[in-house]
Design goal:
This protein has helices spanning 53-57, 78-90, 104-116, 139-143, 173-181, 198-204, 208-217, 222-228, 240-244, 252-268, 274-289; strands at residues 7-12, 15-20, 28-32, 63-68, 97-102, 120-124, 164-168, 187-190. It is of the alpha/beta class. It has 2 domains: 7-238, Rossmann fold (3-Layer(aba) Sandwich); 250-290, no CATH class. The model has no long low-confidence stretch (mean pLDDT 91). This is Alpha/beta hydrolase.
């Protein structure tokens, strides 16, 4: 079913698959992308990059990468699910099958990891559901288009039994609630104060590659992980969400810490930009006049 030592692109219903098998004695990575990586339509498929494929293929690591085509696509069509059932048999030859996904991609792995017989999965800021009735507390869910194939109440990743490692921001209330919905506790690595930006944060801290590659062959080193996170205080979006939308669960001390870091960050990056000030002033005047 899978060809060896050659790069292959294939469309399965409304999903684009790209894979390269270098060595069947090595682990196989299976990835699903975040919603922002959607391919608009079939006309773009030939030139469209498939999320994460190049990262693994350039390192000559076995990779099967999936990408959704069009909106309302949750990797849930009957044709695609049937294909995954066949793929499960084809990948039994690998010593381990490792899943990696972010947001929508993490949700998709929650749906399909057991079906594929994966050894473990790395879920970054996962959506556990896209059902509006189930998660009315998540603006991402509320604003998402419903599936063109399925009842959203049926699509739920929380029952995933494959061993999970979560990476998320517990101060981002929707992300915390999604992680807490999963029936297994799994391994939880927490990045406080960055919001729904986990892969971006790890990338900006030059940690993303190491985290993924460590997980591929074993476990993520906790000491190096949390040591590297100390630099997140220099990121422009550190505590941005918590600063704009504080929850009632914050203690007075936590609120002070949030305001302290945001004030410090703004002072360190203070810029006097007359053009922006003038534009905002004109906009404000127009609003008052009208």
């Amino acid at each position: 079913m899978l060809k060896l030592n050659t790069e292959v692109k294939e469309i399965i219903d409304n999903v684009l698959m790209q894979y390269h098998i270098f060595d069947i004695s090595q682990p196989l990575m299976i990835t699903f992308p975040p919603v922002c990586q959607s391919i608009k339509n079939n006309d773009d498929v030939i030139s469209a990059p498939v999320w994460s494929f190049d990262f693994f293929a350039k390192r000559k690591l076995n990779i099967v990468a999936f990408n959704h085509i069009g909106e309302g696509n949750y990797f849930d069509s009957r044709t695609f699910v049937s294909f995954l059932d066949k793929l499960k048999q084809a990948i039994t030859v690998f010593p381990s099958k490792v899943g990696y996904g972010s947001s929508l991609g993490a949700f998709s792995l929650g749906l399909h990891a057991d079906r594929l017989g994966l050894s473990k999965v790395l879920l970054m800021m996962p959506q556990s559901t896209y059902c509006k009735k189930t998660a009315p507390w998540d603006s991402i869910v509320i604003n998402a288009q419903d599936s063109i194939n399925s009842d959203m109440a049926i699509l739920d990743g929380r029952t995933c039994k494959t061993p999970i490692t979560f990476i998320y921001d517990p101060l981002s209330l929707p992300d915390k609630l999604h992680v807490d919905r999963y029936q297994q506790r799994g391994t939880r690595l927490k990045i406080f104060g960055v919001g729904h930006r986990i892969p971006r944060t790890l990338q900006h801290l030059d940690m993303l590659s190491d985290v993924i590659l460590q997980f591929r062959v074993g476990t993520i080193d906790n000491n190096s992980f949390y040591r590297g996170l100390k630099e997140r205080r220099k990121l422009s979006y550190y505590f941005r969400d918590a600063y704009k939308q504080p929850t009632m669960s914050y203690t007075n001390r936590r609120v002070l810490i949030i305001y302290w870091h945001k004030t410090k960050q703004r002072l360190q990056h203070l810029k006097f930009e007359p053009s922006k000030i003038l534009a905002r002033l004109i906009c404000s005047i127009k609003k008052r006049i009208s």
